[in-house]
């Protein structure tokens, strides 16, 4: 594939992405969503963010991540569910992963 084709593809995707984002902002006041649709959009956003975080945390390329990383993510999620401060969540997750790696898991 030529450099010009790649550059054109990048530009087209960038313009399209910007147009979609701008359209959402500009049309929000003209086309209000109902209460149920608003809740669905909010939940969809949360689900999408969680899915991206889990895929990033639990995989390395096409391979599963080490068990220690998965345990660290689970420990951090547990601390977050218990409403621990962010610093505590990070320390718990990192400590769990580091401890398991030190044990050879």
UniProtKB/TrEMBL annotation:
InterPro entries: Brnchd-chn_aa_trnsp_AzlD (IPR008407). It holds the Pfam family AzlD. It comes from the Bacteria. Keywords: Membrane, Transmembrane, Transmembrane helix. The chain crosses the membrane at residues 6-28, 40-59, 79-100. This is Branched-chain amino acid transporter. The lineage of its organism: Bacteria, Bacillati, Actinomycetota, Actinomycetes, Micrococcales.
């Amino acid at each position: 594939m030529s450099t010009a084709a790649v550059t054109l593809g990048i530009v087209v995707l960038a313009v399209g992405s910007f147009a979609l984002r701008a359209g959402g902002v500009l049309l929000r006041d003209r086309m209000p969503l109902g209460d149920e649709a608003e809740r669905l959009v909010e939940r969809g956003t949360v689900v999408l963010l969680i899915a991206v975080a889990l895929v990033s945390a639990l995989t390395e390329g096409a391979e599963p991540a080490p068990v220690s990383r998965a345990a660290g993510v689970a420990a951090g999620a547990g601390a977050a569910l218990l409403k621990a401060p962010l610093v505590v969540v990070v320390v718990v997750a990192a400590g769990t992963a580091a401890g398991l790696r030190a044990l050879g898991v």
